Amino acid sequence: MTMPVDLDTDAARLRTVMAEDLAARGTLDDPAWRAAVQKVPRHRFVPGFYLPGEECGGQGLPRWQPVTAALDRGRWLAAAYSDATLITQFDGDEPDWENPAERYGGAPTSSSTLPSLVLRMWTDAEVREGHTVLEIGTGTGYSTALACERLGSGGVTSVEVDPHRLERAASALHGCGYTPTLAVADGLYGYWPGAPFDRIVAACSFRAVPPALVAQVRPGGKILLTLSGWLYGYARVLLTVTGDGTAEGRLLGGTVSFMSARAHAAPAFGNPAHWAAGLTGRPRVAQHGPERITAATEESFHLRFLVQSAVPDAQLATVGDVVHLADVVSGSAATLTPDGDGGGGWRVREGGPVRLWESVERVLDAYDAAGRPGPETFTLCVHDGGQHLRHPRLPCLSLPSP
């Protein structure tokens, strides 16, 4: 379908409005990044995407509506220049945007990240003119285009594990005049042909810092990435790489999350009822309830990351009033059930070689005793002996082996 001749004019106007809004919110303080936002046509990188429908489908599954210029030009263009994440792929399947269809449920596997977060990532990584950068997770290519506009295409390398996604991103980038180095590659291993880099910025999350990334950064260079885990706790860290192959940096504040690198995604663990059926022994009174890590608060967001360092292979599911933890590696399990007296207490049953909830409670006790410190007070140390999260008033926590 041929678009009206004023599409570029409308898009330019919306880009200016978006840049003004981001600047008013303090997201766009750097004039060079503001110029990039006003120049890069985001709509060229999102020919189609999904937005949530107003109603759920059968069995309560979320409803996702496709949005393209052919279906609704106004809605498509307005969403493209909103500060919103636009889902472009579910379950690794590339949609046919010529004949898109509604879908129900599914796990998002690619998206165009909201522009404010894209800019926050580049600015938090302290990217400057003259730097060479490796971006992990090309996605739609919009973030890559912003980096090219700021640094020049010659300074930008971007890798994407999904070849179909990279093909679409490459077409959009080249169509806009950007020529970064692009490669189908797993971000766990960086991209040795372009190394060493001044900066590495990851648009996906990892359970631990991949050693290859540390090895591919110049001494004094920086790595910005999001750490995650199977309890869906997240933390961002800005690491500075030293000359001896180690790295260290503080956690950053906020509640930012990214999709997991596909190799680090949580495995399916089966039916929670099957795990609960194998528990023996009498329940005990829980010292802490699950709301400490499940509540929709910044503290709970931070705590999920801390406690999953103590039980890195545990996953959580809620069925009715019962909260289940299952560890597919050790075979351990725990259930938390309301005690029924109306006081908000919980009772816990555990089984297997690892006492999952007891391990969580030890972290929560130590956290409370330390005065409930925020993420910015923690330092991540990466060295040959492992990856350790350190705090002056807390026991050392270790990340899973990368």
TrEMBL record:
GO terms for biological process: methylation. GO terms for molecular function: methyltransferase activity. Keywords: Cytoplasm, Methyltransferase, S-adenosyl-L-methionine, Transferase. It is found in: Cytoplasm. SUPFAM superfamilies: S-adenosyl-L-methionine-dependent methyltransferases (SSF53335). Its EC number is 2.1.1.77. The keyword Acyltransferase does not apply. CDD domains: AdoMet_MTases. Residues 91-110 are annotated as: Disordered. PANTHER family: PROTEIN-L-ISOASPARTATE O-METHYLTRANSFERASE, PROTEIN-L-ISOASPARTATE(D-ASPARTATE) O-METHYLTRANSFERASE. Belongs to the methyltransferase superfamily. L-isoaspartyl/D-aspartyl protein methyltransferase family. NCBIfam families: methyltr_grsp. This is Protein-L-isoaspartate O-methyltransferase.
